[in-house]
Write a structure and sequence with these properties.
Oligomer: single chain
Structural class: mainly alpha
Distance between the termini: 16 Å
Strand content: under 5%
Largest sheet: none
Number of helices: 4
Shape: globular
Helix content: 55-70%
Length: 91
């Protein structure tokens, strides 16, 4: 779950910096690949399908204001995991 939380926070940071003219794309993490591998999806689900869903869900999470607490990020990370499980029938 922490990897998903970090992906949400990292995406928000990179896109916020980009919106003010700072290219921070070099600081993106490979957490999506790690999550894909940890879930053991390589034989079941294409990386492209997984990455598309993951990045769409992470993009939605960028609207979360987590400046005071990571609780909302944790809840959203749980939602991301639930959506991944539901979409790829991993439950």
């Amino acid at each position: 779950m922490l990897l998903i939380e970090d992906a949400i926070i990292n995406a928000k940071l990179i896109n916020t910096l980009d919106s003010i003219g700072i290219d921070a794309s070099l600081y993106s993490t490979s957490s999506v690949t790690i999550i894909y591998n940890l879930l053991g999806l390589d034989a079941k689900i294409s990386k492209d399908d997984f990455y598309a869903l993951f990045f769409n869900l992470i993009k939605e999470g960028e609207r979360i204001d987590f400046t005071r607490s990571r609780t909302l990020v944790r809840r959203y990370a749980e939602k991301v995991m639930f959506e991944i499980n539901k979409r790829f029938d991993l439950l």
